[in-house]
């Protein structure tokens, strides 16, 4: 049936595989453009180890080449990633392009590669084998999507800072996606070599990288079959033009280019947007069960955080200076102070987003200065002054990311369909739904954050933070932008949480709310604690009144 | 989405079984079928075949090698039209563009072989692609005739592989003694493209010929196909004060290199091969082309059989002068016709058997022969560009 189309069909398979190596990094928001280099290294290395005769009489020698390619590509990506992954965005792109060029130049000048003339091998790759590799990759990505690892990828892509605060090890997640990309590119390189039987250093040039990137972006990287759509589209368009009798020549690339432009302009999520429009994504329903297996919170009154002489300076600016603070389980600690008093810097240090430049401290057993995901794992959860929600995830998926610190990785078990993975996913789902209900967003679970009102966004962020089952919840101006009804509801929620035994640390300008909810109040001015203690006493402290009056008239209205 | 575990296991087993079978490689050779409708009556010029004979062509019509593919396409089309007008056999030419890429070249060959079921294929344009596609043609048992695939080792791919393209080394080897005779060369500079198969292999021949002719190489420099800046190499040439510069390059690099050489004040004659043999190149070089010595497979100035008509018809048909690529592709059409008419049989086997028997066929390239090994034999033309015109040296 398909006789005579083998090359065409295999070319599509190869394009899909190359696109997957971009897909996996785009999923995690990393613009890696070094795939050509990884593919080249893998392909050239495989010529050294792949046997020239069929294995056991009839098995394709590519079966040796594919794992070798994956190993070489992955290992190379790891080594390159160590220095290069310090970069982000366009700088990462340039760094990885440079790597690809380095490999090309090296291969051109090495003796054993026969330089620019290239190498020839027997063609061992069959069309079925190529598509089986595609099927395996498709399966891996299909299972990855709704797993804990898949959510970590999405979280890092959407907002690295928020992802780290939700317990996602950002460095490790970026490296994982980078190594996976290298491994897939390696497999591509080997398969290309054994399909066409010939490679030169120029085979793996920048245009190859561009082709893969275009395919991945065109197909869309938010769904697992994006690369298949992209490759299918890019192959089908010229073929259809041929079938319609459009003359070859410059018209082909022009029409393909115009279609490409149309897709990018009108389908920002790639071709997969079309599929999503035809069949809207189902929000996974509330399993209705209460989340179980959560560790009990510490007894109220147990010290959970201790800061001694904490300071932070940016150059000559002392944002925070010698702050001593103890936080106990179950208390609601308010931090107030005029704008620029160092409140946010203080909570950023407590949650691991910033390293203190003086003093020391320990939060939930983690020493200050550790990366933020360590604090999250230990039971600290936070929201941000300006919400840092994951824009392209539904409200439910946002909250599911929050469960990261209290769930186990499910990806490998999902690949094997182990029932325990499903149990764990259901438990995470139950956790997430419970928090959505708690903040009153259960009916809006399917919406993206952009479709929610400002107050709802703040509540969603709190739900996400609560999904981590925190011991200490840090809220940075949670009531900002809320009307007084919403603020009242929020105050009730905070009191409720405190009753459950969660310690809450929050920064707020709404003094009424602070006085209503806090069990203790700390006032910062110019980075220093100027008053601390029982809220009403502190509010009446002349130093506090002066700090506010002296700072800004507007602020004084609240006091 | 939610398979029960047992069916999941079954799926895994099924996938494993599929993997095991799909990974097998078969080694059965292509079966050569022959279609009696493709063999006709009569012999030679009187041969008549009822069925239309399908011929395939794969040229680089777009991207890097389009400079050659366009001429090849025009030359071959013209030949096929002339042959169809002559009658007896009706040819259908199926033309594919390989976009100067290996992937597309392989796909085009597969289409012509498997879907169009052509009797023979002309092309591809570049040797780099031929090394991959000719393996497929050989495996499928389809005769392939190269018209610009001049690299070493092409005919050796198999008994179905032929070429009517004078190897670069033969053209260059002929131009060096001719240039020595007229210009009295003693010491020369050699510049070559080390990234291209045929220019790199030509470099080896150049060295051998120069040694035979007792000409000393004082400067030897290489560059890569895509380079556009040659001042490093040319400075060494300028310092050495040579009698001539021998250049083995593709047209892409030739134009900037020759121009930069003239700009740097290198006045020594430049001796080149096939790449120089194009009126377009002369046009692009403007004044810098003066005094270039060119060894090639065809010359507009040669008084070979039908050459004057070929040039006139080509000019009339396409509104531009033909170059060597056009001439060689044109000749390929006639060579295939010869092979078909020999036994009045257009089956793949018959064309393969008869292409290797062509002896001293009188073409616009002069008398041309193809041996059983698939290699071409013809006398190269050595020309010099004087007043913007190719003149036989």
TrEMBL record, chain A:
GO terms for molecular function: ATP binding; ATP hydrolysis activity; branched-chain amino acid transmembrane transporter activity. Its main location: membrane. The chain crosses the membrane at residues 7-27, 62-84, 90-112, 124-142, 175-196, 208-234, 254-276. PROSITE patterns: ABC_TRANSPORTER_1, ABC_TRANSPORTER_2. It holds the Pfam family BPD_transp_2. The keyword ATP-binding applies. It comes from the Bacteria. Keywords: ATP-binding, Cell membrane, Membrane, Nucleotide-binding, Transmembrane, Transmembrane helix, Transport. This is Branched-chain amino acid ABC transporter ATP-binding protein/permease. It comes from Glycomyces paridis.
UniProtKB/TrEMBL annotation, chain B:
Residues 1-22 form the signal peptide. Keywords: Signal. The keyword Signal applies. Residues 52-380 form the Leucine-binding protein domain. The keyword Signal applies. CDD domains: PBP1_ABC_HAAT-like (cd06348). Belongs to the leucine-binding protein family. This is ABC transporter substrate-binding protein. The lineage of its organism: Bacteria, Bacillati, Actinomycetota, Actinomycetes, Glycomycetales.
């Amino acid at each position: 049936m398909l006789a005579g189309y083998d090359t065409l069909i295999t070319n599509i398979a190869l394009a899909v595989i190359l696109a997957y190596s971009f897909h996996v990094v785009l999923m995690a928001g990393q613009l890696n453009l070094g795939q050509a280099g990884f593919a080249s290294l893998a392909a050239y290395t495989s010529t050294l180890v792949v046997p020239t005769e069929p294995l056991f009489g009839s098995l394709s020698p590519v079966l040796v080449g594919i794992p070798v390619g994956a190993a070489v590509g992955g290992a190379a990506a790891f080594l390159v990633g160590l220095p290069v992954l310090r970069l982000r965005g366009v700088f990462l792109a340039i760094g990885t392009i440079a790597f690809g060029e380095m490999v090309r130049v090296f291969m051109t000048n090495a003796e054993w590669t026969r330089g620019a003339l290239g190498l020839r091998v027997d063609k061992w790759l069959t069309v079925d084998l190529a598509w089986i590799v595609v099927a395996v990759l498709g399966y891996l990505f299909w299972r990855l999507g709704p797993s804990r690892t898949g959510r970590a990828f999405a979280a890092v892509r959407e907002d690295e800072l928020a992802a780290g605060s939700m317990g996602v090890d950002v460095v490790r997640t970026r490296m994982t996606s980078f190594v996976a990309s290298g491994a897939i590119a390696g497999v591509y390189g080997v398969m290309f070599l054994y399909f066409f039987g010939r490679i030169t250093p120029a085979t793996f040039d920048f245009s190859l990288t561009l082709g893969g990137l275009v395919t991945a972006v065109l197909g869309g990287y938010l769904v697992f079959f994006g690369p298949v759509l992209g490759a299918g589209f890019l192959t089908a368009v010229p073929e259809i033009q041929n079938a319609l009798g459009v003359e070859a020549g410059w018209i082909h690339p022009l029409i393909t280019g115009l279609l490409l432009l149309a897709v990018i302009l009108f389908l920002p999520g790639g071709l997969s947007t079309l599929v999503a429009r035809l069949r809207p994504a189902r929000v996974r329903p509330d399993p209705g069960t209460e989340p179980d297996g959560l560790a009990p919170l510490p007894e109220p009154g147990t010290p959970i955080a201790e800061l001694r002489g904490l300071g932070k300076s940016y150059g000559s600016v002392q944002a925070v200076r010698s702050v001593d603070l103890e936080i106990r389980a179950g208390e609601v600690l308010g931090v107030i102070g005029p704008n620029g008093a160092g409140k946010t810097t203080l909570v950023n240090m407590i949650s691991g987003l910033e390293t203190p430049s003086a003093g020391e401290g320990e939060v939930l057993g983690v020493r200050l200065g550790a990366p933020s995901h360590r604090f999250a794992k230990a039971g600290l959860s936070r929201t941000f002054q300006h919400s840092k929600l994951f824009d392209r995830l539904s409200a439910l998926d946002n909250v599911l990311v929050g469960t990261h610190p209290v769930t186990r990785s499910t990806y490998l078990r999902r690949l094997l369909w182990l029932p325990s993975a499903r149990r764990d996913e259901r438990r995470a789902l139950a956790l997430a739904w419970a928090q959505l209900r708690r903040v009153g967003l259960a009916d809006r679970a399917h919406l993206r954050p952009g479709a929610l009102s400002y107050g709802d966004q703040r509540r969603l962020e709190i739900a996400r933070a609560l999904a981590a089952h925190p011991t200490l919840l840090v809220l940075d101006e949670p009531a900002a932008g809320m009307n007084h009804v919403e603020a009242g509801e929020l105050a009730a929620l905070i009191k409720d949480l405190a009753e459950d035994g969660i310690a809450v640390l929050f920064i707020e300008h709404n003094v009424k709310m602070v006085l209503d909810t806090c069990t203790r109040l700390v006032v910062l001015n110019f980075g220093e604690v100027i008053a601390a203690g029982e809220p009403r006493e502190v509010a009446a402290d002349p130093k506090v009144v002066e700090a506010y009056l002296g700072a800004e008239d507007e602020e004084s209205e609240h006091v | 989405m939610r398979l029960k575990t047992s069916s999941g296991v079954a799926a895994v087993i099924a996938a494993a079984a599929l993997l095991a079978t799909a990974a097998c490689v078969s080694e059965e050779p292509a079966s050569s079928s022959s279609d009696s409708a493709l063999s006709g009556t009569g012999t030679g010029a009187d041969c008549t075949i009822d069925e239309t004979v399908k011929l395939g062509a794969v040229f680089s019509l777009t991207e890097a090698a389009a400079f050659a593919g366009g001429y090849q396409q025009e030359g071959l089309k013209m030949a096929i039209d002339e042959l169809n007008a002559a009658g007896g056999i009706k040819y259908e030419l199926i033309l594919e563009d390989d976009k100067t890429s290996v992937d597309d070249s392989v796909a085009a060959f597969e289409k012509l072989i498997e879907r169009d079921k052509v009797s023979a294929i002309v092309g591809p344009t570049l040797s780099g692609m031929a090394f991959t596609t000719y393996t497929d043609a050989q495996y499928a048992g389809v005769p392939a005739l190269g018209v610009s695939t001049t690299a070493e080792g092409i005919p050796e791919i198999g008994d179905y592989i032929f070429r009517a393209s004078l190897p670069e080394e033969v053209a260059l080897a002929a131009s060096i003694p001719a240039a020595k005779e007229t210009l009295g060369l003693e010491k020369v500079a050699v510049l070559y493209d080390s990234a291209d198969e045929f220019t790199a292999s030509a470099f080896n021949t150049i060295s051998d010929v120069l040694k035979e002719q007792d000409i000393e190489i004082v400067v030897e420099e290489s560059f890569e196909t895509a380079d556009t800046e040659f001042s490093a190499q040319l400075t060494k040439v300028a310092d050495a004060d040579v009698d001539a510069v021998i250049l083995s390059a593709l047209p892409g690099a030739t134009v900037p290199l020759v121009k930069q050489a003239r700009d740097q004040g290198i006045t020594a004659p430049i001796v080149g091969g096939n790449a120089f043999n194009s009126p377009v190149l002369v046009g692009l070089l403007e004044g810098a082309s003066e005094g270039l010595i060119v060894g090639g497979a065809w010359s507009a100035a040669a008084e070979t059989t039908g050459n004057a008509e070929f040039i006139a018809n080509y000019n009339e048909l396409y509104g531009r002068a033909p170059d060597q690529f056009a001439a060689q592709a044109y000749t390929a059409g006639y060579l295939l016709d010869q092979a078909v008419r020999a036994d009045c049989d257009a089956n793949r086997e018959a064309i393969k058997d008869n292409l290797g028997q062509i002896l001293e066929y009188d073409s616009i390239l002069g008398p041309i022969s193809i041996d059983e090994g698939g290699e071409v034999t013809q006398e190269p033309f050595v020309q010099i560009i004087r007043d913007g015109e190719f003149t036989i040296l």
